[in-house]
Amino acid sequence: MRDPNFRKTILFLSAYDKQDGAFGLVINRPANKKLVDFLPDQELGVLENVPVYHGGPVEPQELIIASFQWTELEAKVTMHSAWSLNELEELPVNERKTLRAFVGYSGWTGGQLEAELQQDAWIIQVATKTILNGKADEGTWLKIMRSLGPAYHLLAIAPDNPELN
Q1: DSSP 155
Q2: 50-99 per-position pLDDT tens digit
Q3: What is d(CA 3, CA 114) in angstroms, rounded to the nearest whole number?
Q4: Rounded distance, CA 17 to CA 64, Å?
Q5: Which positions ≥6 away from 70 have C-beta within 8 Å?
Q6: Which end of the chain is more exposed for a tag (fewer CB within 10 A), N or C?
Q7: Is the dihedral of CA 54, 58, 60, 66 positive or negative?
Q8: What is the pTM of this model?
Q9: Helix, strand, or coil (residue 6)
């Protein structure tokens, strides 16, 4: 994807409907900030160190807090978002480990994502526990591309503008 908003990103698609559209979060663009940096006047306690990521180009002034829960037996992930600070404080300690905050989100209108998929603009992968529980960054994207085979690895390491090579 050449769009700078999505270049070398891992996008977690959490809601999809063919007619209504889709909602997702970029999970590998750390903002190198913590939740306390965005809510300095709030008493956050242990939540002040929740990492913040750039979630996408839509509503970049909006802060979304999400918890990813991996269910081992079913090999599936559940995402809960739009938590209030009171709800966050009541979360069990094990769920706080998977908390992330996102500035902005990624969204598509009905049919838009399907059109992008028909153009092969996206590579679809199943979510894994390692990606969601780890500290995903641009290096994570490269590892995924490398794991898909030599053609994808070459695509991943190609310069953004081959004319400047």
Answers
A1: H
A2: 899 999 999 999 998 888 777 776 656 667 666 677 777 777 666 666 78
A3: 17
A4: 21
A5: 76, 77, 98, 129, 132, 133
A6: C
A7: negative
A8: 0.86
A9: coil
Give the 3-state secondary structure of residue 2.
coil
**Mind giving me the DSSP string for 9-50?**
--EEEEEEETTTEEEEEE-S-EEEEEHHHH-TTS--GGGGG-
How far does Cα 3 stand from its chain's mean position? 16
SS (H, E, C) 58-123: EEEEEEEEEEEEEECCCCEEEEEECCCHHHHHHCCHHHHCCEEEEEEEEEECCCHHHHHHHCCCCC
Q: Are 77 and 65 in contact (CB under 8 A)?
A: no
Angle between helices 138-147 and 150-157 (to 10 degrees): 150
The CATH architecture of the domain made up of 11-164 is 3-Layer(aba) Sandwich (3.40)
